[in-house]
Design goal:
Shape: elongated
CATH class of the largest domain: Alpha Beta
Structural class: alpha+beta
Number of helices: 7
Number of domains: 2
CATH architecture of the largest domain: 3-Layer(aba) Sandwich
Strand content: 15-25%
Largest sheet: 8 strands, antiparallel
Distance between the termini: 72 Å
Mean pLDDT: 80
Length: about 210
């Protein structure tokens, strides 16, 4: 007995279902291409198979991948060079002994080849030095021991300004929230106006949110 061919109306109704299936498969493939999701799934399967060490390794890999993505976005928040200036690639140091001593450190160096001036912006998250800086600002009389250091404010942010007369260098230090220290160092003739121009070019609230989530 021959099967009756599908009517045009039946074929028309089947097309959306097939398209939906292909779309779902496409989305599943895209999700599987994410290395973080892949490792989380691998950890789940390992855990269900009573392989806790494998699960831990997979989760640690996923965490490392997320941290790399997070750092890459944070590095994008450094300002572009001022007119006439060039800049190195922004870098991050968030591991090893340095991180234990200073916390996560992001930095970028800017240079003016014509004048020889140099500016370095450093952002430290969870630095143990934050406590010392906070103490100095809460007790300004401690700054009297160093005549080259004065209190400094930028908008609602508080910090210190240090001028080293021996080499004509400047350093601005600002507290950003409770866990972030922003420092801008100028040397080779980089003056206060130049440092403040770079400071004005920074989106400090976005930087704070990227580093602390606050």
């Amino acid at each position: 007995m021959k099967t009756a061919p599908a009517s045009p109306s039946m074929m028309h109704r089947a097309l959306p279902a097939r398209a939906l299936l292909l779309l779902c498969l496409g989305l599943a493939g895209a999700a599987a291409a994410d290395p973080v999701i892949d490792q989380i799934e691998a950890a789940r399967h390992a855990y269900e198979s009573d392989e806790p060490q494998v699960a831990i390794q997979a989760l640690n890999f996923a965490i490392a991948q997320i941290e790399e993505q997070q750092t890459a976005k944070q590095l994008e928040l450094f300002p572009e060079p001022l007119p006439g200036w060039t800049a190195d690639e922004a870098t991050a140091d968030s591991g090893g002994i340095t991180a234990m001593l200073t916390g996560k450190v992001l930095s970028r160096t800017y240079r003016n080849e014509q004048s020889g001036a140099e500016v370095r912006i450093t952002v430290s998250a969870n630095s143990p030095f934050l406590g010392a800086l906070t103490s100095l600002m809460q007790m300004p009389m401690l700054l009297q021991a160093d005549p080259d250091t004065t209190l400094y404010t930028h908008g609602s942010y508080r910090g210190m300004l240090k001028q080293d007369t021996s080499d004509d260098s400047l350093e601005m230090s600002l507290l950003v929230g409770n866990n972030v220290l922003l420092q801008i160092n100028g040397s080779g003739g980089a003056d206060r106006a130049t440092l403040e121009a770079y400071l004005d070019a920074m989106d400090i609230p976005a930087l704070q949110k990227a580093l602390t989530g606050a």
